[in-house]
Amino acid sequence: MTAQPARPERTGPGTASVIKVSPFKASLVKAVFRDVTPMHVSRSAAWAAASVTRTVLTEIIDGARRAAAEEARKKLVPGDLLSAIGRNVELDVGNQWYCHSPTFHGKRSRSRKPSAVVGAHRFEAGVKKLLRSQGATAVPVMVRDLDGIASAFLTDLARDAAMVVREGGVKRFGTVTLEIPGEPAPPPLLEDSLLALSVRRGDRRTIGRDDILAATTIQLFGGVRQRALTEAGAATQNTSAG
User: Fold this and answer.
1) Model confidence over 53-94: pLDDT tens digits?
2) pTM of this prediction?
3) How far is Cα 129 from Cα 132, in angstroms, rounded to an integer?
4) How far is it, in rounded angstroms, from Cα 224 to Cα 143?
5) Judging by DSSP bridges, how do beta strands 137-138 and 75-76 pair with one another?
6) So what's the pLDDT on residue 236?
7) How many whole angstroms separate alpha carbon 238 and alpha carbon 236?
8) Could you give the CA distance from residue 121 to residue 20 in angstroms, rounded to a whole number?
9) Are 46 and 230 in contact (CB under 8 A)?
């Protein structure tokens, strides 16, 4: 990743929030995309994809940390990963990795698709850096699982972004709402900014930032999706969308 996105930047005049920098290099993100599609991936798209992946992994690590804290442990283990995903359905991502990891033995399958683990271990350094930034440590197996989930999630994101480009937008746009037992279901809400992503403008040869954001609406839902979109938008606000 170039030096420019690594510099903390304000989100606007009088705003104190600072852009969160992804530990996943744009060059590695583009390598995953090349395994999926021959389309060109713009610089801002790579930064957006890296940011979304960071948000997802951060949420998983936070959930795992809470699980570990309940047992008075500081080092994260695979059981904490299972607890984090089990407690928050929004974190159930990168499913293709599950059949390749002993941690998810209950979900393993005899079908081992090569695309599920293409690029696995590319993100180990980024995962370790993200753990350190969250004040966490993890056993090697846990690091491997986070690495694999990041790779599988990015592969899915790349595939959906390429579909958005080919189809000219998100053709099956929708939203998922979690209901609380005993309470009335909230009315469906589709923000204008999300609706705008359902219609694509631009050429059919380049994956741009907005294509990544549109793919994010397919891969994620709920609070995690909103945070991922917000942080990716902030991380790429000073770059072109194409």
Assistant:
1) 999 999 999 999 999 999 999 999 999 999 999 999 999 999
2) 0.78
3) 5
4) 21
5) parallel
6) 86
7) 6
8) 23
9) no
